[in-house]
Amino acid sequence: MSEANIQTVFVANRGEIALRIIRASRRLGLRVVCGFSEADRGSPYLSLADETICIGPAPAAKSYLNIPAVVRAAQLSGADLIHPGYGFLSENADFAEAVQAAGMTLIGPNADVMRRMGDKVEAKAAMIAAGVPCVPGPDSVLPDDVAEISRIAEEIGYPVILKAAGGGGGRGMRIARAQAELAQAYMLTRQEAQRFFGNPDIYMEKFLERPRHVEIQVMADSHGQALWLGDRDCSMQRRHQKLIEEAPAPGIDRVLIAEIGARCAQSCVEIGYVGAGTFEFLYEDGEFYFIEMNTRIQVEHPVTEMVTGLDIVALQIDVARGGKLAMAQRDVRTEGHAVECRINAEDPLTFAPNPGRVSALHIPGGPGVRVDTHMAAGAEVSASYDSMIAKVIAFGADRTEAIARARSALAEMRIEGIKTNIPLHRELLVEEGFAEGGVSIHHLEHWLKAREVENV
Ligand code: ADP
To answer: Which residue, 105, 134, 357, 375, has fewest beta-carbon neighbours within 10 Å?
Structure first.
């Protein structure tokens, strides 16, 4: 199909990211059709699409995760392109195949590349081949022989972590701190891998004790050009869920980051990657260790947009339509600093989800403040989906100014009718460790534990 004919984008997602995709599509002058489930019927964000189509009942398995239903709705809407957003079907290679078979274009890499990067062992092997530094450990699946496994662990050196090749969402991982723990850790991880991911393959790597989570954003076109668009630090996590993200990662040698970024971009060319992607690394003692690649847009992409001035979702759509990236690596410049706070509909102390109706809402503004949300007064937060309802992004000339603006924005923001984690963000934005920058992925949980003890 020629580029001129491609005019309709189907949004196979919901909430704030659906709205983000609607906005990017409209900015590009495309027609945009948004799928919705019964739970999202009548949600205010849907009115910004040119058309909407119901794809099924509230449970995600019957709507947003239902491949035949999504593909059918997209076809009915006359879509040329499908944007999967994040979560749901965004990293599902079977979906990518179904979209292609139905004659449409998925905004993302092709099914083969998606499948390959979705297998962490294969992804690691591809990265080692491309010269991207990985966590020490073999780039192959563990054999089924305990003596051999224990030899591999000795070679890596304890502690080690056993991980499911097909794992995701922080599941299917277990640490062994000594040989005595190894056999059982192996057995349990294998069972879990089979049960959750239908793939019993396990691999092993060095367990890093106090790493930071640092990631590189990439964007590649179908003409052999790949760029890296800077880095992000997402170490502020609870149960592997990111809560605050920022760009750039503070206190890391920029020359080293540029070297890692260039390797990520180069490896995109080598694996035939097209679209937006993220290379996730653990960073410890001045070294980067690749852990996985996400083959989709990420929740935290706005911090990169704020410091680069780029519209990553529009670029995704452009390259999916066969467009050429109109810039070279030297044109990608980052300036200033950006911080993102994920606002969740949950109890700020217990973290229990708190769905319900938003009775009143005040969205902060002012210089350097961006809020990505599908919320409006009267909108319903459904119990059927993720509890994230807004992202507050603050930009500043430097990290101090970005955090100061985030603090003012969070002080101003009001969401009534449901509980949110806004009070938690207010505390975290003045917390000493975070304010200093460069905390490890365990910092937030340690801080929460200490606060709990104080409150008893
Ligand atoms: P998932 O796809 O489930 O998110 P990842 O491979 O990205 O799995 O790992 C999730 C998290 O587990 C990481 O962000 C980190 O906190 C922890 N982790 C993974 N591998 C290691 C490792 N080798 N050492 C220490 N922590 C690790």
So the answer is: 357
